[in-house]
Amino acid sequence: MREIHKLNDKIELWYLVGRVTEENIAEAKSISDKVWLSAHFDQNDKRTIQLALDRGIDVSYWTVNTIEDAKMVYDLGVRYIETDILAK
After folding, report:
1. Is 46 among the domain residues?
2. Global pTM?
3. Residues 6+ apart with CB under 8 A from 9
4. Which domain covers residue 35, as residue numbers?
5. Cβ contact 13:32 at 8 Å
6. Rg of the Cα trace of the chain?
7. Is residue 33 predicted with pLDDT exceeding 90?
8. Are residues 46 and 72 in contact, defined by beta-carbon separation less than 8 angstroms?
């Protein structure tokens, strides 16, 4: 990711992680403010979701497949949600 950022600092990069941690937030931010975390929803909870938001890093969650879970992350402030289900 660092090399890609050096080649073109306008590219938005996504750092794929399981659980959101202080360490992977710091790593992403050390590369660029254009680096997002893409985190596994099932490995996170309200605390780690809020941690990312509080640290000012953009984050998406995968795979959010219920309306209740999508509403929960949206209500916390997440605006990018990945799902396998397009409609019910």
Report:
1. yes
2. 0.88
3. 32, 34
4. 2-81
5. yes
6. 13
7. no
8. yes
Give the residue from 67, 78, 86, 1 showing the smallest Cα distance to 39.
78
| CATH number (domain holding residue 51) | 3.40.50
How many C-beta neighbours within 10 Å does residue 32 have? 16
Specify if 52 maps to a domain: yes
**Rounded average pLDDT over 27-41:** 94
The answer to whether 38 and 18 are in contact (CB under 8 A) is no
| 56 domain-assigned | yes
CA 27 to chain centre: 13
Domain total in the chain: 1
CA atoms of 15 and 41, how far apart (whole Å) = 14
Domain contains 88:
no
* pLDDT interval class at 44 (50, 70, 90): very high
